[in-house]
Amino acid sequence: MPLFVGVHKWKPEEEIAVVKESVAFFTAAPEGKFPEGVELCATYSLAQGVYSVWNAPSKEILEKVFGKYAPTTIKGTEFVPVVQSFPPTTGYILSLWQAVIKMASK
User: Fold this and answer.
1) Most CB atoms closer than 10 Å: which of 19, 34, 57, 101?
2) What DSSP assignment string belongs to 10-21?
3) What is the pTM of this model?
4) What are phi and psi of 35, to 5 degrees?
5) Number of domains in the chain
6) Using CA atoms, how far apart are residues 38 and 27, in angstroms rounded to an integer?
């Protein structure tokens, strides 16, 4: 399953709207309202922002979920596809091998 880091930022004046959306969002998640395969792994909070880590079938599906439950938040959100490097996963090892092959063919 692809892994994504979400970078979510908002303006101070959007704080209340984002908190309200967060309530709806985190209520919908355990109720099984997210598409199959969408799983929140972790969140890290900062001032007017959050970093989140997701398993999801695609970036587009994550954007659709946020568009439905967090329309203010999605405006300042970017989902970045990542590969877990520690502890090493099969996906990470394969990406290293692919990089080595690419470098060797130059």
Assistant:
1) 34
2) --GGGHHHHHHH
3) 0.81
4) -60, 155
5) 1
6) 14
